[in-house]
Every structure is written in C-alpha cells, then in structure tokens.
C-alpha cells in the first residue's frame, strides 16, 4: 500500500500524582527519545497497561495517595506483565533489596535527570 | 594389802585428766574464793595444814594452801590421789599406820604428817579432779568430829561448784576466742559533763585484731591505739553505759580505714561488750554504685538517664524574651505551687520565694551567669516542699540563644538529690564532733625538764597530778621535789628509766605510783623524749604524764571478774548455738542436735529457746534445706570454720553467720538475722540492673518483660508484669509477663471486673495490696477466678498519666506472702521507671516518624523546585546555567540527607563531604583526611554548597578534568577553648596548571559561593601554584557547630 510506518519508538508509562513533577518526567522521557503515556495514579496505570501492550518501561513514584501503594503496584506489574522494566522513585527512604521487584531500579527524589535517562536507555536500548 | 591400794588407772584416766585440763586452772595465780575455802577448812578442823590439791598426771598442784611450804609435789608424796576413788571423805587417822601412806616421804621425813582427811572434788560429770584436805602432824585416832566432817564435805562441794563455774566460763571463753566476729569488752571514760570521751579495751578475741588491724589493743585506750577515732564510737559506748540498752549501728572508723557493723551491749560494772564485723567491702560496693550514678549525671545524656532512673522531679521552660516561666506538674509540686498556674506562667519571684534563704543569693547569681554566658547550667539548692521541709534539688538546664546571640529561652529539669546531700551533711557533722572531742580532752599533763637549770616545768594538769601548786610547777622544781611522793619501791625503777633514756636514748615510758598525803594512791604513766641541740647534746627532756589509776584498777578488777563469759553469751543479740552432729548407722551425718542456744537465738529464729535443747534441727524445723545440715557436718568433719549468708525458706528469713568446730562432734555458730539487709541489697541490685536494662532496650515488650523478671526475682513472686490499661473499657493488656515455671502466663487482654472491684482504687491512683484474695472484700466474690490463675496475694501499682490510669505493674504470689512497706515502695519505683522508659521509647518512635515525614516532604519540595526550574527554563538555549542550578539543588539535598540520618542535630563532617562529592560523582578521586568533627545544620549546608562548587570547578578546569588528577581535602582543629578554629585545605594535583581568574569584572555565583567560606563569613585563601589549585578556609569551631 506504500504507506511508511515510522519505526515504533519504545513507550514509557509515567505514573506520578504531582502534576509539576509529572510534567518534568514527561519532558525527560521525550527528551530521551521515547514515546510517553502519563497517568496520575496506579489505578489508571493498570487500565493503561491492560490496553497498551506496547509499554516497555514504567517510571513510577511510589508514594501516591489513594488506591494501590507504589511498591505494591510495582509488584503487581512484575506479576502480571513480567517483561516490563521498572524505574521507581521516592522521597522516602530507599527500600530494602528484598522489597524491590526483580530488575527494578530505584532513585531517590530529587533524582538526576541524566541518571534516569541512562537507566531507560539501558533497559530498552 | 594390795587390794587396799587404789587402782592407779583412776589417776591416769584420760577423760579425768581432760576434765581437769578443761578447767585451765593448773599454775594459775591464787584466787580469793579458793584461799578462803582452805583457810576455813583449816580453822573448822583445827588443823595446821589445809590444801586444795589438784591431781594431774605426774604431780599434784595446790590451788590454795595453808601451813604447807610447797605449791606442788610429785605423786609419790600425794595422799590426795587416794581420795580420787572415794565416794565420800577419805579419812586416814594415822598415816604412819596405813599401808597406803606409811612409806610416803612426807610421813617418814619432814614435815612428818600423821593425819589426813580429804573431800574429793567431784565435777558434775562425775570426774574427781582432786581434793580439799586437812592435815595434822599428830595422828587423830578419832578422825574428824561429825561437825568437822560435815563442814569439810560442805567446803568440798563449795570448791567443786567454783570449779564447775570455772569450767563453764572456760567453755564460753573458748567460744568467744573462736568466733569470727571481732569481740571486745571495754570500759568507758567520761568527762565532767558526763560525755564519753574515750574507751579502753579490757579483753579482745583474736578476731578483733583481724577486724581492726590493731594488735596489742588490750589495756589501751581507743584514742591512743586509733588516734583520730571518731567521737561517735565513744558516744555509742557512753550511751550503752548510761541507758543499759544494747545499740547496733554501722559506722566508719576512719583511722582504721574501715567500716563496721557494730553491736554494743552492756555487761555490767559499767563495761560494754562489742561485736564487730568489717563491712568495708560492702560499703565500697555501695559507694561504687553512688560513684557510677554520679558519673552518669556527668554524661551529656544526663537528662535522659535521669528520666530513665526516675530522678527527675519536674521540668521548666523560661521564655527569656517574654520572661514567661512555665513549669510542669512535677515542678509545681516540688515548689508547692498551683499546677494550673505553672502551665500559664509564674513570676520568677514566686519560685525564688520557696528557695531556702541561705541559697537565694547563690541561685540568683548562678541564673544570671548562665543567661549571660549561655549554654549549660547546673545548680544545687534547697527548696521548701509542700510539707514545709527543705529538700535538696539540682536544677539542670541550658540557655538557648538566637542567631544574634541574644538569650531566647532557658529550659531545664529538676533532679532530686536529697539522699546525696543528707549523706554529705552527716559527714560534716561527724567531722565537727571529732574536732570538739579533740579540743575537749585536757587530761594530759605536760612536763619539760631543762638540763642546764635542772628544773622541771609542769603545766596545770601536771601540777594537779602531783598534788602541787601550778605556780610552783610552772616556775620549775627539781626532780627530787617531784619524786617526794613517789612510792619508795617505784623510785629506783623510775630513775633507771631516766638513766636509760639519757645514756642509751631508750624510749622513755614508765609507770609509777604517787602516795600524796590525804589522797588515794595514784598511778601515773609518763612518756617523754630528749631534745638535743645542734651539737647533739641533750638540752631538754620533755613529755606527758597521764593519770592511769582507772586503768590499773580495772585491770585488777578484770583479773577477778567472774561469771563473765556465760553472761556475755546470754546478753548477745547475736544468735549463738552449740550443736552436736547426729549420724546414721553408716556414720554419715544426717542431722544435728541443739546442745545449747542463747536467748537471742530464740528471738532471731522465732522459737522458744528452752524448747529446742536436746532436739534436732530437722525436728525443730521440718523441711529445712539440707545445706543447713551438710555445711555444718563439713565443719565437724574438716575442722574448718565456714561463713554463710543463707535463707531458711520455711521461716522466710535470711541469716548470716559463722560456724566453727568446737571439740569432738560439735560445732558452735554465731549468727544474725539479716533478712532486711539482704532484701534491701536484692532490691538495690535489682534497681541497678533495671536502670541498665531500661537504658539499653528499645522495644516496649522486651523492656516490660525484663522489668517483670527483675521485679519477680526481687520480690520472690510467682508472677510479675506490666499491663497497658484502657480505663474506659476497664481492660488491661498484658504484653508479656514473667512467671514461675509452675505458674501460667497471663499475657493477653483481661477485663478487670472479672477479678474484682479493685480497679476503682487503681483509677484513684491508689496502690492495691491484697493479702488474701479470698478474704479481701474487693476480691472475695471473684476469688475463684484469681486462684484459678495462681493468685493468692496480689500487688497492683497504678501508673497514671495526667491523672488517668494508663498502666499497672503487678506482682502475684501463689501462696501467702506477707509484704512490707519496702516491697510496696520497691514495686512503685520499678513501675515509675518502666513508665518513664515506655514513654521515652514512644516519644522516640514518634520523633522518628516525624523526622521521616519531614524528610519526605523536603525531598519532594526539592523535586518540585527542580521541576519548576526545568519547566521555566525549558526554552533557555544556554543549558549550562540550568544544569548548574540543578546540580546545586542536588548538593543541598545530599546535605539534608546526612542531617536527617543524625536527626537534624549535627552531622559528621566526613559524611557530609563524602555525600556531596558522591553526588558530584567524584568521591573516588578525592581523599578525605581529618579528625572526627560534628557540624551544625547551617555549616552542613554551606560546606556542601562550597565543596560542590570546588568539585565542579575541578572537573571543568582542574585536577578532575584529566584522568589521573586527584584532590586532597584535609581539615584540622587549632587553638583552645572558645578560640578553636577549623582549617580546611582543598589541594588539587595532577591536573593542568591553573590560571588565576581575571581580577576585573563581576564574579559568577559559583565563585562568590566559594568566597563565602565555610560559614558564610569569608576566611578563604585561594592559591594557584603550577602543581594545582589550592584553597584554605578557616572558621571558628563554635560557628561551625552552631545550630
């Protein structure tokens, strides 16, 4: 049919309840050369994941009000969508190694943008 | 007539000889009682000779005699030996005619004795030790008249009685020689006002020397053998003489460097006996405890420790800016103030009004100084408590200053130090009394003999001693004038002593008698020494003279004192017993029999002393612990004494004492009941242990369990614990408890009403002590429920918080257990401490939660700042300043991280530097070296920003811009006290040669940050040698550590 499909860029799901921080995270993901979907809660994120099989990385804050706690959300992803890579950020204490889902990477807030970029590229590069 | 001869074995019978030995009478001086008996015998029987003859092995020895030249003879010359086997008088009318005696040299030769009549001296156990006899030099065919025979028998019985008394005396004397406690009998010297000023040891046992270290104490005055001995010892002796009541106390004898548990009791004739035990070791451990407590107070965490130890009375906060003084309830109570007023603020004048008048000025002074100087404050003073009595307290606080150095607030706590002060006060009083005693003694006469004038000068005491006019002795008299009244036979020995002193430098010490006309004979003890001039020639001879008449008289009295030891035995308040072991058929010792006990034994054991003689221990105390038999069996078997401190379970009493061997199959024991002391020790140790555990433990259940175990062990309980109370639901939740192996745990949730109505008392803050749950009105209806969980006796101590019941400490006993006020006080103390510790843990946990929340918000805020900046500056094409900004925010965040780990108070300099350098990504190429140093929060932030800039510059232009470059960061402390400074060096090497910045133009933000220095006030020196960039920064330590 002659149509040219541009090569699909990896999609990153940003989960962050704080709007300003979510904006920055979205910029960060786009600047790194990925497509981005952003939501404000874990519940919305699950809905997105159920409809978007192309998501490769979830970049999530763990302390969000209401619904699923961030760490349990991360664990859910690891159970239901094992291939998805996880980047977890938090303003709270660093989780113990046994609390982290397999292959999950943790960054304390305020995180450094270049470190997140590097981590995402490593995961899907 | 062989059959008429006595069986020689009676003379040599070992048991008889042992009985004689036990009298310890052979070769002793004459005694009036025995002398009187022979004199009477001679007179009543009209005989020229009378003897009290004791027949030993190989000789007969005369304790008393009339008309006979010898004090002993061999047995060949003995007639008395034939009396030994006689049931009654032995009468031999003509010794020359009797086959037993006709060859006796005393009969055949001088003095030619012809008649003998002797009364055998038979002791209570049947042994005959000798005879009381009369002898004549002419035969008496009729023998004695009937009256004479009766009289001789009576006198013989009298003498036997005296010997018997002596034997029992001897037995008790041996006891006292053997006991482990120091023992002495003393006489007391009083001054004219009736105050005891000295005491002299008349007799002492060997242990006395061990306990006091004083050898040769007998016959000497305490002030002489232990100079500086505390007046309280004399006072104690004086009191016992005056009141006739025994006295028991624990006191120090500083000259001996020891503490004693002393028991004094009167023994008649104005004399006092004392038993002492050295308690120095125990006192030392007590003072070590006090020292460790004192040390704890010095600790920087003294306030926390005091809180854990329950020593805090109350807390205050003084807002200096508004002069508002607010206090908590404890403080208000301590000062007798209205608690409501305390919360709203009290004028300081009202606080000071309750301070002891003598302490007000000092307190005002200390407060002023603390406010002017700032920092820590500690001051001790007395305040009038609610009961009107003054108590010592210590106020501990800290003046907080604002950033401009102005004092802002002055919070602190009050500590109870009454106990410590009372002890110090008592010590001072004792010292004052000693001083008084020393100045009051004026009984020593002083003399001084000038060699050149040959005149001896004496002071007024000396004049009085010699019955001379003080004016004359002061002016000086010749030696002969003084010696006028010396008893003639004492003059030569006195002169000999003086000669010895002058010729051989012998120490001068002599006793002599003065017979002053119209006065009683007086004994004087004189001591002195020669004083030489520079050339070594004696120029003076001076010394002291003391009237020792009393001592000499007492020595004489002592020699004749009778019925002394037996009396002591009965007057002792120490329990004393003599036991004889009981063996089974295999020879094993299984029990022992009471042979003798004194009156005190009855009081200490709680049994009638007369009811136990002849019975055995196991009969008297059924179920007694085996060790009470086994240990004394060992004493008998090995001959070695033992000391013990042990409990008789069935009596619930503790005893401390000493058992020692006492001849064949017997032992003696002297002991005291020490239940109160042991229990006090146990409680003290328990509180000490509790204090340590409470400090170390951080989890409430573990802490409560530890406290419960300590509580139960110290009170001998079957269960103990601590429960959290819900006052509205009337439930108690026992997290953990300690329970005896055969007792169930009550951990879990319980409704109070299931077990009785006593929660009403607990809610009012009253301690609930129920001696028997089946009888107490509060529990008798629910007794079944309590007994089912093993509670017969219970003690509940309420723990109130702001007047509300929040917890209880409980102690249960499964069977009857009488408890004392001390038990209650102890449980209450433990409960208070547990409550404080629980509050501390809860407060710390809350603080941790708060800190984490704060940190979380701060980090989110930093993240927000970065988000806003990155959105705001999104369109800026020059990315370098944007990135620099973000990195600086990250540096700030890392510093906060370190501070958070230290709860925002202070951060170790090394960790701050490591964090910020790691954040910049260079920690592996920077070497840190310097002493431990804590930074205040402000310095932590400024240093972080500063190092971040230096590292950024080094990475751009300096040592960190090339692979092999390194940076050394070193810091050191210089100076002393307030002027201490911290110097920090940043030294780059291995990089390209640095270029100094152009001096003109406006500096960038990074450069200005660097120039602000460690605390924002400069003190920065930058250098650019070719080896690499160097920076040196200085700041006062106080500013670096300021909060």
Secondary structure topology:
The complex is a heterodimer of chains A (125) and B (1043).
Chain A: E1 11-15, H1 19-31, E2 35-39, H2 42-51, E3 55-61, H3 70-80, E4 85-90, E5 105-108, H4 113-124
Parallel strand pairs in A: 1-2, 1-3, 3-4, 4-5
Chain B: H1 8-12, H2 14-23, H3 32-44, E1 49-55, E2 59-66, E3 72-74, E4 90-92, H4 105-108, E5 115-122, E6 128-136, H5 146-178, E7 182-190, E8 196-204, H6 206-212, H7 222-225, H8 231-243, E9 247-253, E10 258-266, E11 271-278, H9 280-298, H10 302-309, E12 312-319, E13 324-327, H11 329-334, H12 339-344, H13 348-353, H14 357-373, E14 375-384, E15 390-401, E16 407-416, H15 418-440, E17 445-450, E18 455-458, H16 460-466, H17 470-475, H18 479-483, H19 488-504, E19 508-514, E20 522-532, E21 538-547, H20 549-560, H21 564-571, E22 575-583, E23 589-597, H22 599-605, H23 617-620, H24 627-638, E24 642-648, E25 653-661, E26 666-673, H25 675-696, H26 700-715, E27 719-726, E28 731-739, E29 748-751, H27 759-763, E30 768-770, H28 783-788, E31 793-801, E32 804-813, H29 821-872, H30 879-901, E33 907-908, H31 909-920, E34 926-929, E35 934-935, H32 937-956, E36 966-974, E37 981-989, H33 1005-1012, E38 1020-1023, E39 1030-1036, H34 1037-1041
Parallel strand pairs in B: 34-36
Antiparallel strand pairs in B: 1-2, 1-6, 2-3, 4-5, 5-6, 7-8, 7-11, 9-10, 10-11, 12-13, 12-16, 14-15, 15-16, 17-18, 17-21, 19-20, 20-21, 22-23, 22-26, 24-25, 25-26, 27-28, 27-32, 28-29, 30-31, 31-32, 33-35, 36-37, 37-39, 38-39
Helix pairs in contact in B: 3-5, 5-21, 25-26, 25-29, 26-29, 29-30, 30-31, 30-32, 31-32, 32-33
